[in-house]
Amino acid sequence: MTSDVTDTGKFGTGPLSRVSALIYTLLVVELLVLLTVVPGLVALVLLDRSAGNVPLMAACLLPVGPALSAALYALRHRRRDLTELRPAPAFWRGYRLNFGAAMKIWVPWLVILALVGTNLGNFSAAGVPGWWGALLVVLAAGSTLWVANALVITSLFAFRAVDVAKLAAWALGRFPAATLANACLLVVAGGVTLVATEAAVALLASVLTATVLWNSRAMIAEVEQRFTRQ
Questions:
Q1: Does 5 reside within a domain?
Q2: What is the residue range of 26's domain?
Q3: What's the structural domain count of the chain?
Q4: By Cβ atoms counted within 10 A, which residue in 23, 130, 165, 188 is the most buried?
Q5: Of 17 and 177, which is predicted with more confidence?
Q6: 137-153: buried (b, 16+ CB within 10 Å) or exposed (e) per residue?
Q7: What is the pLDDT of residues 33-80, one digit of tens each?
Q8: Neighbour-count burial for 5-27, b at 16+ CB within 10 Å, e otherwise
Q9: Has residue 21 been placed in a domain?
Q10: How many whole angstroms separate alpha carbon 33 and alpha carbon 25?
Q11: Distance separating alpha carbons of residues 89 and 98, to the nearest angstrom
């Protein structure tokens, strides 16, 4: 039988404890994300999937930005030691600290998404060429990859919104592996939404957020090294 006590005799720092700590943190963060977004999520699930409701769908997603920002903050600052876990206080601290900054990034993205969705929903009636629809899809995907970078940056660093926007766009080309990984994650999330509902994606929020954070570790390290005071 193996023990989770290290050679130094300290409990809670072995491999089993680290895995348990990660699972516990993900579960707590997931519950807190759901708690902060549940009103909008319920309304979103009940809305009819029509082009006219796209702006309302975007409005339902307003609470998601600060919640994801708080989740990123809590996961970034999580403790590996099972005896020192405090994911809930870290989440609420991140929520308070980053609410305004996250909304400055999140709201413009939702506006773009609402405009794209409305145009695509009325695409046949508009009589525009097919390439315009493809361009709109590329715009939606590109802006989503951008907002993922922007949320990571604004959740972990204290930059002005305009600087966050520039850094997030710069990171798309500077870290192509991370951009590709996030694009794959976007495809998975979109597939889950199509097959199931938005609620299914919400139930995976902490896992998806942790994956984005993992994909962004090179970007985080370079931003910290190049653009913050040591």
A1: no
A2: 15-227
A3: 1
A4: 165
A5: 177
A6: eeebeebbbbbbbbbbb
A7: 999 999 898 888 888 878 788 899 999 999 999 999 999 999 999 876
A8: eeeeeeebbbeebbeebbeebbe
A9: yes
A10: 12
A11: 14
- What is the rounded CA–CA span in Å between residue 42 and residue 136? 28
Q: How far is CA 154 from CA 20, 35, 99, 100, 205, in A?
A: 28, 22, 10, 10, 18
pTM value > 0.85: yes
Q: Which amino acid is at 50?
A: S
Query: How far apart (Å, rounded) are the C-alpha atoms in residues 107 and 59?
Result: 9
> What's the pLDDT at 8?
43
Give Dmax (Cα) for the chain: 72
Q: Is residue 176 included in any domain, yes or no?
A: yes
Residues above pLDDT 70, as percent of the chain: 88
**What is the secondary structure of 129-163 as a DSSP string?**
-HHHHHHHHHHHHHHHHHHHHHHHHHHHS---HHH
Q: Judge whether residue 116 has pLDDT over 70.
A: yes
| Minimum mean pLDDT range among 126-135, 137-146, 191-200 | 126-135
Mean of per-residue pLDDT scores for the chain: 88
State the Cα–Cα distance between residues 60 and 93, nearest whole angstrom.
23
Sign of CA dihedral 160, 33, 206, 57: negative
Tokens of 113: 């998404």
For residue 48, the SS3 value is coil
Residue 9, domain member (yes or no) = no
CB-based contacts of 222, cutoff 8 Å, min separation 6: 174, 175
